[in-house]
Amino acid sequence: MLSVIQQHLGQQPLSIVSGATDEILAVLKNDAVKNPDKKKEIVKLLNPIPNQVFERLYLK
After folding, report:
1. Which residue range is the domain that position 47 belongs to?
2. How many other C-beta atoms can be found within 10 angstroms of the C-beta atom of residue 59?
3. What is the distance of C-alpha 16 from the center of its chain?
4. Going by C-beta distance under 8 Å and a sequence separation of 6 or more, which residues neighbour residue 42?
5. 13-58 per-position pLDDT tens digit
6. For residue 31, what is the DSSP state?
7. Looking at the 3D structure of the chain, how many domains does it have?
8. Rg over CA atoms, the chain
């Protein structure tokens, strides 16, 4: 998961990538949020992402 996020964020310090990963994990683990809304929250962190990227994050 970390490598997927790092690829999407580009040349960012590891602390930024780790922080984004923590935020994304929190969104993915939140059972009160439905999948389309989870993707919207992740897009706020990573900018537009293809469905394939979301699926890779969600299924890991």
Report:
1. 2-59
2. 7
3. 13
4. 24, 27, 28, 49, 54, 57
5. 999 999 999 999 999 999 999 988 998 888 888 878 778 887 777 7
6. T
7. 1
8. 11
Give the C-alpha distances (Å, rounded to integers) separating 13 from 6, 24, 32, 44: 9, 17, 31, 19
Global pTM value: 0.77
| Cα–Cα distances in angstroms (integers) from residue 22 to residues 4, 34, 54, in the given order | 13, 19, 15
Residue type, 44: K
Q: What is the rounded CA–CA span in Å between residue 31 and residue 19?
A: 21
Tokens standing for residue 58: 């969600």
Nearest-10 crossing angle of helices 51-59, 35-46: 110
Torsion of CA 9, 11, 16, 20, to 10 degrees: 20
